[in-house]
């Protein structure tokens, strides 16, 4: 069965909306900082920290990317962006952007671990609300 995690942008987040290009930039930044860490440690850490290749499907190129594994213990992670209409505490409707991480049925435990790690990284950078695969919620934004 497929599993989903969501990074939801709240009013306190760094951005109000997010595009797939923003996600690609953040993932590229993640690769860059892990490569720097690996260089400091004199180890190929970037290949272990991000064992995927970013691919863009032609049909939904402005909504979805997927991470195809380069290592044998990993398979694939799907990442998409979208918007939803929600009701605030005041009862007012507003549009909320979110990033969805999907693990297909063929995903491994390694994929789930990496997806959790990437979700936490993106949520921290965007100061967003993270709904994990196990339905728990983490808050990376200043709460009242």
From TrEMBL:
InterPro entries in alphabetical order: DUF1885, Rbstp2229-like_sf
Source taxon at top rank: Bacteria
One Pfam family linked to the record: DUF1885
Protein name per the record: DUF1885 domain-containing protein
Organism: Peribacillus muralis
């Amino acid at each position: 069965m497929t599993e989903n995690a969501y990074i939801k942008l709240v009013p306190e987040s760094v951005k109000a909306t997010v595009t797939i290009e923003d996600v690609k930039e953040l993932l590229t930044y993640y690769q860059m900082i892990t490569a720097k860490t690996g260089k400091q440690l004199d180890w190929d850490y970037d290949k272990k920290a991000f064992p995927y290749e970013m691919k863009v499907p032609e049909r939904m190129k402005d909504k979805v990317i997927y991470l195809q594994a380069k290592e044998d213990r990993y398979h694939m992670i799907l990442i998409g962006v979208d918007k939803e209409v929600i009701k605030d505490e005041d009862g007012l409707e507003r549009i909320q952007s979110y990033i969805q991480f999907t693990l297909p049925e063929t995903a491994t435990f390694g994929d789930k671990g990496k997806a959790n790690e990437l979700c936490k990284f993106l949520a921290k950078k965007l100061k967003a609300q993270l709904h994990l695969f196990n339905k728990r919620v983490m808050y990376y934004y200043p709460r009242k």
